[in-house]
Specification:
Shape: globular
Number of helices: 8
Strand order of the largest sheet: 6-7-8-3-9-10
Helix content: 25-40%
Mean pLDDT: 88
Structural class: alpha/beta
Oligomer: single chain
CATH class: Alpha Beta
Number of domains: 1
CATH topology: Rossmann fold
Largest sheet: 6 strands, mixed
Bound molecules: adenosine-5'-diphosphate
Order of helices and strands: EEEHEEEHHHEHEHEEHH
CATH architecture: 3-Layer(aba) Sandwich
CATH superfamily: P-loop containing nucleotide triphosphate hydrolases
Amino acid sequence: MIDHDKNIIEVKNISFAYGAEEVLSNISINVHQGDYLAFVGPNGAGKTTLLKIILGLLLPKKGSIRLFGRDIKDFKDWRKISYVAQGVNNFDHNFPATVLEIVLMGRYSRKGLLKNINSSDKKIAEKAIEQVGLSGFKNRLIGDLSGGQKQRVFIARALCAEPEVIFLDEPTAGVDRQSQDNFYMLLKKMNAELGITLVLISHDVERMLKEAMHIACIDHTLTCHTSPEEFLRESAAADIMGEKVRLIAHHHNN
Ligand code: ADP
C-alpha cells in the first residue's frame, strides 16, 4: 500500500560548498511515498549537487538526510533506491554489451557483486525490458540503439533492482520530442501502476508542470515547493515568477 503521507526522504537544513563556493544554502524538503517530484531551476543552480547529497555521494557541510526513516549514515537498504545519472545516452558506441547484459547489471545492486546472477534474475531483467517496450531489442548491442531507446535501457536497469524510488537527472537531454513523450508516459505508468516514487531533475519547467505532482524550484536555495496548479496560479499572479519561468524555459529549450 502506498502511503502518500509517509516521508521517505527528509532533507533538513542542507548546505554545501565545493571549496569556497557555496552551492546550496539551507535546503529543507521532504519526499513522500508515491510522489512524483521535479527539481527545476536554471543551470548551475545546484540540482545535481543536491541529488548527489541525497544519494550519499557527497557529504553536506551542514544539515541532515534521512532515508526511509533512518539517518543516511546508518542507512543500508540502498537497493530501495535507483539512480539514472545524467548523460546515459552518451554511452560509448563501442561498449560491447547487449541490452539484456546492461539491464542485468541492475540486479547486482540488489544482490551484491559477488552473488551469481541466476535464471530468476534473467526473468526479472526480461520483464523490465518488456515494461519499457524493448522486448525485441534484448540481444542488440547498446551502441546500436537510438538515444530514446538507450534511455529506456537505463530505465529498465533501474527497474530491475525493484526499487521503491528512482532518481533521474535530466533524463531526456538529447532525446527527440516523440521519444520524450513516450518516455514521460512510461514514467507516469511506473509511478501510477508500480507505485514507484520518482524524483527528477529537469530544466524543462513546462513539461514538468504537466507531468509531476510536485515542483521544487532550486536556485542555490529552495525558492518554491508546490503543486503544478499552485505554481501556475502564482506565476499568473506574480509576473516576476512568470518571467522566471519563461527565462528558464527559454534558456533550455532543447
Ligand atoms: P545544476 O544541476 O543545477 O545544473 P550543479 O549541482 O551541477 O547544478 O552545479 C552547481 C554549481 O556547482 C555550478 O556552479 C557548478 O559549476 C559547480 N560544480 C558542480 N560540480 C562541481 C565540482 N565537482 N567541483 C567544483 N564545482 C562544481
